[in-house]
Amino acid sequence: QVQLVESGGGLVQSGGSLRLSCAASGAIEPIYVMAWYRQAPGERRELVASIATDDNNENYADSVRGRFRIALGRAKNTMYLQMDALKPEDTAVYYCNTVSGAALKLAWGQGTQVTVSS
């Protein structure tokens, strides 16, 4: 059972920056993809960015491309999301997600709140 712990959320003014971190533990099988999702009140959870652990291939939602950057950490099974030029519409709970093992099991963190004031 993979456990995910996020950190780094908070309140920031429009145009500001935040860096989210995620650490995975308890993985018995390889983690293939690490990703960030977000969910705003009344909205569906959406993919923000993902990164493949074998070749570092990155994928971004159109709404954040050019402003956010996902990266794997030096420590195994860690990941970061650098968020720059934040906008009020980026306000949401951000969730760390992993895909692991032959069965492509999903794991989710507890979420961290990001609030961008205008």
Fold and architecture overview:
0% of the residues lie in helices and 56% in strands. By secondary structure, the protein is an all-beta fold. The strands form two sheets. Strands 2, 4, 5, 6, 9, 10 and 11 form a seven-stranded mixed β-sheet that branches. The chain has a four-stranded antiparallel β-sheet with strand order 1-3-8-7, with no helix packed on it. A hairpin with a 5-residue loop joins strand 7 and strand 8 (78-83). The protein is globular, with a radius of gyration of 14 Å. It starts with a strand and ends with a strand. The mean pLDDT is 96.
List the helices and strands and how they pair.
Layout: E1 3-7, E2 10-13, E3 18-25, E4 31-39, E5 46-52, E6 58-60, E7 68-72, E8 78-83, E9 92-100, E10 105-108, E11 112-117
Parallel strand pairs: 2-11
Antiparallel strand pairs: 1-3, 3-8, 4-5, 4-9, 5-6, 7-8, 9-10, 9-11
The separation of the N and C termini measures 40 Å
Mean pLDDT, rounded to whole units? 96
Number of helices: 0
Structural Rg: 14 Å
H/E topology pattern: EEEEEEEEEEE
Number of separate strands:
11
Main sheet? 7 strands, mixed
Note the beta-strand portion. over 45%
How much helix, percentage-wise, in residues?
under 10%
| Structural class by SSE content | mainly beta
Give the gist of this structure.
With 118 residues, the chain is an all-beta fold. The chain is built from no helices and eleven strands.
Attribute tags:
7-stranded mixed β-sheet, 118 residues, 0% helix, 4-stranded antiparallel β-sheet, single chain, mainly beta
